[in-house]
Description:
It is a single chain. By secondary structure, the protein is mainly β. 8% of the residues lie in helices and 44% in strands. Strands 4-5-8-9-7-6 form a six-stranded antiparallel barrel. The chain starts with 5 loop residues before the first helix and ends in a 25-residue tail after the last helix. The relative contact order is 0.22. The model is unreliable at 1-21 and 184-210 (pLDDT under 50).
Amino acid sequence: MKPSLFPVLLIAASALCGGLACAEKADRSKPMNVEADALRYDDLKQTSVFTGRVVLTKGSILIRGGKVEVRQDAEGYQYGVVSAEPGKLAFFRQKREGLDEFIEGEGEAIEYNSRADTVKFTKNAQLRRYRGAHLSDEMTGAVILYNNSTDVFSIDGAVATASPGATPGRVRAMLSPTPDADALKAGNASTPQTPAPALRATTTLGGEKK
Length: 210
């Protein structure tokens, strides 16, 4: 990653993860369900390849793409690689623990690792956080790595594959202030009466430095 981008990523990570939040913890133990046009399953290797309008759910996690390759290790951890349909982006969405908030992202490819509890978006990567139905934060870059267990994320803008309208090789971010306790109490009844932590167990972003 270019050194000049690193301070920007630190600011973004602080803005989103100021209170250490987590994604929906129950998702880790939920079964993975997949719908697709076709399936190729290898029992010996414990791998499945789904193709054609794939929709994958795991608790509050929702993944959509043109092709999904899923592998399970001996300890039951699952690993998925999602490829987008031609001309489209693969999609990922997950609820934040205890809040009416969701993290969602898109990319030409998505890698899900249940052991490391990370999600990686590559090529035309986009990440958004919604508070209820309102868009709160939005980021774009070449690669976005989101770590659910450490509540840290990183964005690499070095590769010139930014989304339409974005400057190639640059990170773009729109970050909203985290509501304070009084603002939350004055909000809807579904919002916890405590300051909202920044990303949660599934809504956290883990970073890799280049």
